[in-house]
Design goal:
Blueprint: E1 2-5, E2 14-17, E3 27-37, H1 39-45, E4 62-69, E5 81-84, E6 87-89, E7 109-110, E8 122-126, E9 131-132, H2 139-142, H3 148-158, E10 164-168, H4 172-183, E11 187-192, H5 197-205, E12 210-213, E13 222-227, H6 234-241, E14 242-250, E15 271-274, H7 280-293, E16 299-303, H8 307-315, E17 322-326
Parallel strand pairs: 10-11, 10-13, 11-12, 13-14, 14-15, 16-17
Antiparallel strand pairs: 1-2, 3-4, 3-8, 3-17, 4-5, 5-9, 6-7
The structure holds zinc ion (2 copies).
One zinc ion binds at residues 90-91, 94, 96-97, 105-107.
Length: 327
């Protein structure tokens, strides 16, 4: 197999030949056909997330075909299309696992972080955390569903039922969620970097009723705001934009420090909430509703060997939609 490998944080990934991995008991070998590039991959490569497995094959938005079944695997057939998400395994016995909150497991395994992921031609995954994928799109189009979609969906649910929804940072997750929210009849307000006309036009094309800079005040107060950009200063900005009782949901795994702000911004039962990881139930829900909502991810394809270029384009805000590596 070929893989793009991170040896040390803050160094480019290197292309390596490796022996094909062998699936252990309960695992499947997946021949990767597409792997999305998520902002979390960037945080790992840039050394913003502590203690990754090293050397590491990043990537946790994996679409591929089942190439081998380990002992005791049921529910998957050879050749079946399968998706591998960020949540790669849980302990099953901690208080979080036993109370329907496996996203908070005390001993989790994360694809492309604590086990090798999908920036490769092949990967091995725990079958219990893999998903059959609907026939809604081709492989590259489905890849961003596996994290931007699933964790985006968890963030969306945390935002509650209000109709006016703000999206801060109009990247991979927001462009999928805007489609879900529009399908649900909600009004989307998209906030981008100041003066980013291209992203604002993209948001309007996907159904946003308004798009502007993150320093602007939306034309109506919001019921909730979702923040996907890793910028702590957006938290007080979003609190200012939500109405009484409104929620600000932070969907990313890493953010720069949140500047201090007056208590008045939080007063009147406004709330701030982070979203960590996903549960398999989140995945089942999203994979069921996404085809009904007609979700189409906008993707830019890169050959696997150009993973560093894809990461740089994401880092520098040059992408519209999601980057996807094709081995
Ligand atoms: Zn657990
Ligand atoms: Zn991700």
């Amino acid at each position: 197999m070929r893989a793009m490998v991170l040896d040390r944080a803050r160094t480019p990934l290197a292309l390596r030949e490796r022996p094909d991995p062998v699936p252990g008991a309960g695992e499947i070998l997946v021949a990767v056909s597409a792997c999305g590039v998520c902002r979390t991959d960037l945080h790992v490569v840039d050394g913003e997330l502590a203690h990754p497995k090293l050397p590491l094959v990043p990537g946790h938005e994996i679409v591929g075909r089942v190439a081998k079944l380990g002992a005791g695997v049921s529910g998957f057939a050879l050749g079946e299309r399968v998706g591998v998400p960020w949540l790669g395994g849980t302990c099953g016995v901690c208080p979080y696992c036993r109370s329907g909150r496996e996203n908070l497991c005390d001993k989790p395994v994360f694809t492309g972080y604590t086990r090798d992921g999908g920036f490769a031609t092949h990967t091995v995954a725990d079958a219990r955390f893999c998903f059959a994928l609907p026939e809604a799109d081709e492989d590259a189009g489905l890849a961003p569903w596996l994290c931007a979609g699933l964790i985006g969906w968890r963030s969306y649910r945390m935002a509650g039922e209000g109709e006016a929804l703000g999206l801060y940072g109009f990247g991979a997750a927001a462009h999928i969620l805007a489609q879900v929210a529009k399908w649900k009849g909600r009004r989307i307000y998209a906030f981008t970097r100041k003066g980013d006309e291209a992203a604002q036009g993209f948001a309007r094309a996907l159904g946003a009723v308004w798009a502007g800079g993150s320093d602007e005040t939306p034309p109506e107060p919001l019921d909730a705001a979702l923040i996907f950009a890793p910028v702590g200063a957006l938290v007080p900005a979003a609190l200012k934009a939500v109405k009484k009782g409104g929620r600000v949901v932070c969907g990313g795994i890493h953010m720069s420090d949140i500047p201090s702000f007056p208590y008045a911004l939080l007063w009147e039962e406004r709330g701030i909430q982070s979203v960590a990881n996903l549960t398999r139930q989140d995945a089942r829900e999203f994979l069921a509703i996404a085809p009904k909502a007609g979700i189409k991810a906008e993707v830019t394809r890169y050959p696997l060997e150009r993973a560093n270029e894809a990461l740089a384009d994401l880092r520098d805000g040059r992408l519209q939609g999601a980057a996807v590596l094709i081995p």
